[in-house]
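Sharing a chain and its predicted structure for anyone who wants a worked example. Both blocks are below, sequence first, tokens second.
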Amino acid sequence: MEPRIVYVNSPFDNREAVAELAPAGFELVQARAGTPAYREALGEASYLVGFVDGLVEEGLYRAAPKLKLIQLLSAGYDRADVPAARRAGVPLANNGGANAVAVAEHAVLLMLAVCRRLPLQHANVGSGRWRGNEPPRVHELKGRTLGIVGLGTIGKKTARLAGAFGMTVHYYDIARLTEDAEDALGVQFRLLGELLRTSDIVSLHVPLNPTTRHLIGAREIALLKPTAVLVNTSRGPVLDEVALTEALAAGKIAGAGLDVFDQEPPEADNPLFSLDNVVLTAHLAGPTVESSTARLRNAFDNVERVERGEPALWVIPELEESPVDADPA
């Protein structure tokens, strides 16, 4: 009997691409979570693949007693019941940085859009104000200091892109690089408070867990320069959204670029929507044509690896003996 992969479909999936990339020698069942087909398939499932961190809880392991690996297509896993995963002893792996390029590019996109006031310029041109309107006060990235909070896979890629723009890059992470690694990447370590006080742009790239929830709150935002820009492509609750909104509205910081929110989707009356110094996207930093393929490639490679009897790659730090940093998206 072929080992069964249960692939949990999302509204954004290309089912044909999933079937095309699925490895030979496995039974592939594609189903939406909670459907009769999904529940029926779990009993003989060896592998569960998809955006499934929200499905990781005690009942999953009872329904799928033959699981060898839960393979996430996301980098983040903040909805997963990690203690339940630990008790079950089944590896829980994230996407191995498959969306790291996409998220790093999106972080730089938000930096540029805020610093160049792109929404305002677009609105002016679209409404016919080509000449005669006040030129917006905009800034270049070159020569500015970028502070990266969380130097995992995405943080490192963001640092490389920032270096190409001629930025000075500082970072804060609980796992420091060696001096040689810092030199090779072109980054310098700073304490969190020091980084916040001295950076022109701060970009957040940490996973959401109890230690990072509201890591950047009112006290931390108060340390930022009045000319600073804050970018978040990690998870909304890493940042105190209420404190950020108050600081933006009062002009205590210059602007923000946000791909994530405390509540998703945000309420229609979210006060961020009325501010002209923010650029907002809908938690779409990670999904690209290229990253979608890379997620599947990594996922099915890991499935084949485990089936060969080799250790799974990209197991989340909480289930590893030696934790490593990880990026969400």
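Comments welcome. DSSP finds twelve helices and twelve strands in the chain.
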